[in-house]
Design a protein that fits this description.
single chain, 768 residues, alpha+beta, Ubiquitin-like (UB roll), seven-stranded mixed beta sheet, six-stranded mixed beta sheet, 25 helices, 26 strands, elongated
């Protein structure tokens, strides 16, 4: 059966005029008749209008009246709105559709009925206002009960002096920031018989109407069947009541007394519904400026709308706006099973797995893309940096990350995980997942902290015979500085730390022990601390593994910056943001490496080797026996060409021949490139970035999928934000020490002469 046609009378080029009954009448302009039905699409309708009226269909705005209501304009913005208009008008002879170009949403002349407000006198002239009753029909019918809705308006920011004869004079001032909201909202409530799609829409219109007209109100009744509101000023007769239209889902204004007798005074009361309303207003600003601060939000709302918010209200409004933009934090956890499946589906060979607790709350998530796994196996040194990054999102948590260096010492995230806390249990789980994903038989050197469970977790998972654990020098220096702070002055601790770093970076044992002796001369206790800190895990001269002179676990600063930009997103969006950053990094370095033509090593390593070749020209080589060579320069060094080793240990530490080795290599008429680590070549760099990461369907698509039987349901972790400002991750080395307070009387630390107890005792003895 064919669907019934509806005749759309489409008009453009005219203007609206409000008659004495408050009804909107469209005058002048051109009109065309178009027949439409449920099969007509909005895009086809717009195209025909654009052809008839000569407008660009991308910039036109469409509005229409509901049958029997010429006070409220309904906006058509999507196909669902268009279908709804056809349904509403199917029993009417026709429907009027008004076509407004985007650039010409002009002022609409209105003869305001005197009954609209007691503040309007009969002597008022025609006042320009914005289109009356501009409403967007929606599906939201969330009629949550609200017992009160008291809010505060800063009358000084919006309203004129109370002696002004025209209450709307403030609409005509030169303050552009105040004109716009007042004109937008002054006719959101037009009177009896005005209809809304839900009570939520009615309440929102009421908020805006009261702001535009400068009064406060409170609810007498507010439930899912009816809403009754009165002006909060004592004795003022302004009233409005709305209820559900019988046999429909529409909400209709049944009674309204538009007359005000109250004076325009600020009512000191809390604005409980502000956060949702303000959230919808600041959404676009927050999208453009993610760092939009609550203080700035409060100032902008007061300046532009006259509403006084405190910091807490502005902060909650920002959280609501962020959730509207990014999606729900809670719903993001329910999407984790789909996210893991999509990652494995779009990036075959990747690992994506999660673990929940017994109550189905989130516990851990592990992600490693095939491009990262393959890159580490094919082109990376067997060197991994383990570290953690604290998340400051709604549910907090921590990111555990394993990062490898490429040939240019750029950070290459191999895998990362999100866990509820940093603990030995979570590190063991992370390392087990890492070991399974990599399946690499090489002996790996890990540069990692010695605290938070890592010291026990590494040998437990990898075994002492299959890994080397190098302590992070920065964390060790921090602990040394903290432990000695109360015992030594600023100058003494500065010398101790300088000697500590010298001991760590010394390439030969003689250099290490010389620096250790310097520490002992300052303090035997400090020397004992260094000896007990397991120097074979952090000193170059004593470490048995190969870490290419990389001393700190905080290697992947780029990755930490990615986390800092995405940590406030819901978990699925945060993971996808990190994926996108990694995808872009891999692509950028792929393109970059294609420009390295005619070089064996990567650019930075070519430069390092060139410097060693220059230094080698001044050296002399003599051959004692077999593969051992004696190189004479400022000192005498023995080079073992077969073992790729030199007394200076630079060759072993960096993977590039030192100047002594280069002198020997040229002496035997070979190329220095033959003796460079393969991990520093352009070929290895390209192998590391050979694979690409593919896009993953976004969270919105996953949210629309139906629940699958057997799929685990994930709920947010039972954690809450701790009081105070979250601490940011410190990544700077400990090379600057704050000067400690020292007493000039007793030379003690931590106090001054005025508070010196020893000084007080001496003074007392003198008086006695």
């Amino acid at each position: 059966m064919a669907t019934k046609k509806v005749i759309a009378i489409c008009q453009a080029g005219g203007q609206f005029v409000t008659n004495k009954d408050g009804l909107l009448v469209y005058t002048n302009g051109d009109a065309y008749a178009i027949d439409i039905d449920h099969d007509t699409s909005l895009s086809d309708f717009r195209s025909e209008l654009a052809e008839n009226f000569g407008f660009s269909w991308e910039t036109m705005t469409l509005k229409y009246f509901l049958p029997g209501n010429r006070k409220t304009l309904i906006t058509i913005s999507k196909d669902k709105d268009f279908k709804r208009m056809v349904s509403f008008s199917v029993d009417a002879p026709n429907v009027e559709v008004f076509v407004l170009p985007e650039e010409s949403k002009a002022m609409i002349v209105s003869n305001m009925p005197a009954s609209r407000s007691s503040r309007t006198t009969a002597s008022e002239a025609v006042v320009p206002v914005v289109s009356a009753g501009d409403v967007v029909m929606g599906d939201d019918d969330n009629d949550d009960d609200i017992t009160t809705n008291d809010f505060q308006i800063d009358m000084g920011a919006v309203m004129p002096d109370v002696t002004s004869p025209l209450p709307c004079d403030f609409l005509l001032t030169d303050d552009k920031q105040h004109i716009k909201p007042a004109q937008q909202w002054e006719n959101t409530i037009t009177g009896v018989d005005q209809r809304f799609s839900s009570f939520t829409e009615f309440r929102d219109a009421l908020h805006k109407y009261s702001i535009a007209h400068g009064f406060t109100y409170k609810y007498k009744k507010n439930d899912s069947h009816r809403v009754s509101v009165k002006c909060k000023a004592q004795g003022c007769p302004w009233r409005i009541a709305a209820s559900r239209l019988s046999t429909t889902q529409l909400i209709c204004i049944k009674r309204m007394n538009p007359r005000h007798t109250c004076e325009r005074a600020v009512v000191k009361a809390g604005y409980r519904a502000a956060r949702g309303w303000v959230g919808s207003i600041i959404k676009e600003k927050l999208k453009a400026s993610p760092d939009y601060k609550p203080k700035d939000i409060a100032e902008d709302i007061k300046r532009e709308y006259g509403i006084q918010l405190n910091y807490s209200q502005a902060w909650r409004a920002k959280e609501i706006a962020r959730e509207q933009l990014q999606g729900s934090y809670k719903e993001a956890y329910t999407q984790l099973p789909f996210l893991c499946e999509k990652i494995k589906e779009t990036n075959p060979g990747s690992v994506a797995t999660f673990v929940t607790k017994e109550d189905s709350s989130f516990h851990r998530l592990f992600i490693s893309f095939y491009a990262s796994i393959s890159g580490f196996r094919q082109g990376s040194r067997p060197l991994l940096f383990l570290d953690s990054v604290v998340l400051n999102s709604k549910y907090q948590g921590v990111i555990l990350v394993a990062t490898a260096p490429d040939a240019e010492d750029g950070a290459f995230p191999v895998t990362f995980a999100v866990a509820d806390t940093e603990s030995e249990e979570n590190w063991v789980w992370f390392l087990e997942s890492l070991k399974s994903a990599l399946a690499d038989s090489r002996r790996i050197t890990f540069v990692a902290d010695f605290q938070n469970g890592l010291k026990n977790a590494l040998p437990l998972v990898f075994g002492d015979e299959h890994h080397h654990h190098a302590y992070c020098l920065r964390r060790l220096a921090e602990k040394l500085n903290t432990d000695l702070k109360a015992q030594f002055s600023h100058e003494a601790r500065r010398f101790l730390l300088n000697d500590f770093y010298a001991a760590a970076y010394a390439a030969r044992p003689e250099g290490y022990y010389s620096s250790l002796e310097n520490i002992k001369n300052i303090s035997p206790d400090a020397c004992a601390w260094v000896v007990e800190s397991e120097p074979h895990r952090w000193a170059n001269a004593l470490f048995e593994g190969e870490r290419y002179n990389h001393m700190n676990s905080t290697f992947g600063l780029d990755f930490y910056s990615w986390v800092s930009e995405a940590h406030e997103l819901p978990i699925t969006q945060m993971i996808d943001e990190l994926r996108a950053k990694l995808m872009q990094t891999i692509y950028t370095r792929q393109v970059q490496s294609r420009e390295w033509v005619g070089t064996v090593l990567t650019p930075s390593n070519e430069e390092k080797l060139r410097k060693e070749i220059e230094l080698a020209r001044s050296l002399q080589v003599s051959r004692p026996h077999d593969s051992l060579f004696e190189v004479h320069g400022e000192s005498i060094n023995i080079v073992d060409i077969d073992q790729c080793d030199c007394d200076c240990k630079v060759w072993r530490l960096t993977g590039l021949p030192c100047s002594h080795a280069v002198a020997v290599i040229e002496c035997i008429e070979k190329s220095p490139y033959e003796y460079c680590s393969r991990y520093l070549t352009s070929e290895s760099y390209r192998l590391m970035y050979a694979e690409s990461i593919n896009p993953v369907p976004n969270g919105g698509l996953m949210a629309e999928e139906q629940p699958v039987e057997g799929v685990v349901s994930v709920t947010p972790p039972p954690t809450r934000r701790t009081p105070g400002r979250p601490k940011s991750k410190q990544v700077e080395p400990v090379d600057m020490i704050k000067r400690q307070l020292q007493c000039s009387n007793c030379k003690g630390l931590g106090h001054n002469k005025k508070t010196c107890k020893a000084g007080s005792q001496v003074q007392t003895e003198r008086q006695d």
